[in-house]
Amino acid sequence: RQELSEEQVLSLLAKLDDQAFAIGHREEMKDLFHIGIWTGMRLKDCVLLKWAEVNFMQKVISRVFCKTQRHKNASRIPIHPTLFHRLQSRGKNREGEYVLSELAAIYLENPDIVKRLVMKVFSSCGFQTSIEVEGRKKKTPQIGFHSLRHSFVSFCANKGVPLAVVQSIVGHSSPAITRHYTHLGD
Questions:
Q1: Where would a tag sit more exposed on the chain, N or C end, judged by fewer CB atoms within 10 A?
Q2: Distances (CA, A) of 78 to 61, 62, 63, 169
C-alpha cells in the first residue's frame, strides 16, 4: 500500500467536512478516519472498537487486534489529543458497546458496504486507488484505508518515535514488518 502525505490526509478530512459531499453516516465516517489516522489500526479494528477498550483516564486504547487475536496480546495505543476530543464528544451520547455503533452494525452484517463508503472518500479526493499490473487480471489496490496505517507508522518514524514503540502500538510481530511499513521522508 502507498502511504499518504500529511496534505493528502488533510484532504480526506476536509472532504468529510464538506457538506456538498454526499456520504452516509458522515459523523461516524469522520470519526472512523480520525481513529485510523491517529492509531494506525486496520479498518476492522477501527470499526469494531468498543468503549470498554477506550480509557479516557489513561488516554489509551487497549485493543487485541482482530488479525492477531490468537496471540491475545493487547496493544496499548496512546490517544492523540485530536482523537481524544473526538472520542470524548462522541462518548457523551454513547449508544451500545461500539464507538461507531452504526458502522459497526453495518460491518457485522456486510463489511463490503463500509469498505465501499471508505473507498468513496478516497476516490472523491482524486486518489488513484488501484493500478493495473501486467500479468494480473484484477487491479492491484494502491491506496485505501490501510494506507492510513502505513502513514501512521511513517509519521511516527519521522517524528523520532523509537521503532520498538511503533512496533508495539501497531502490533507487528517483528521489527522487520514495522520497517516495511516505514516510508521515511526526506
A1: C
A2: 6, 9, 11, 8
CA dist 30 and 90 (Å) reads 11
Residues 6+ apart with CB under 8 A from 164: 175
Local structure of 178: helix, strand or coil = helix
Detail the DSSP E strand segments found in the chain. Answer: 54-55, 60-63, 75-78, 130-131, 140-141
Question: How many other CB atoms are found less than 10 A from the CB of residue 24?
Answer: 12
Q: Which residues contact 64 (CB under 8 A, 6 or more apart)?
A: 72, 73, 74, 75
pTM of the model: 0.86
Q: For the segment 102-116, what is each residue's pLDDT rounded down to a tens digit?
A: 999 999 999 999 999
Q: What's the helix, strand, coil split of the chain in %, to 5?
A: 55, 10, 40
Q: What is the pLDDT of residues 9-55, one digit of tens each?
A: 999 999 999 999 999 999 999 999 999 999 999 999 999 999 999 99
